[in-house]
Amino acid sequence: MSALAKAISRATGTSVDVETLKVLVIFSGAGLLLSLVTAMIFGSDLAAAFY
């Protein structure tokens, strides 16, 4: 995780804290999981609504 924070700091030129990066990864993962579960549950219903 610290290597990723250092790479982001070098690429953007700003200081990135490891704890902030952990929080961002956790919330991004939770959002992705929620999106995948929603797509699995309502996927066929949404496809019918567009056609």
Q: Helical amount among residues, as a percent range? A: over 70%
The major pleated sheet works out as: none
Q: How confident is the prediction overall: mean pLDDT?
A: 81
The span between the termini is: 44 Å
Number of distinct helices: 2
DSSP E strands, number: 0
Q: Low-confidence runs (pLDDT<50, min 5 residues)? A: none
- Reading the helices and strands in chain order gives HH
* Strand fraction: under 5%
* Computed structural class: mainly alpha
The shape is: elongated
Q: Determine Rg (CA atoms, Å).
A: 17 Å
Description:
By secondary structure, the protein is mainly α. 86% of the residues lie in helices and 0% in strands.
Top keywords for this entry?
2 helices; 51 residues; 0% strand; mainly alpha
Can you describe this structure in just a few lines?
The protein is an all-alpha fold and 51 residues long. 86% of the residues lie in helices and 0% in strands. The longest helix is centred in the middle third of the chain and has 33 residues, at 18-50.
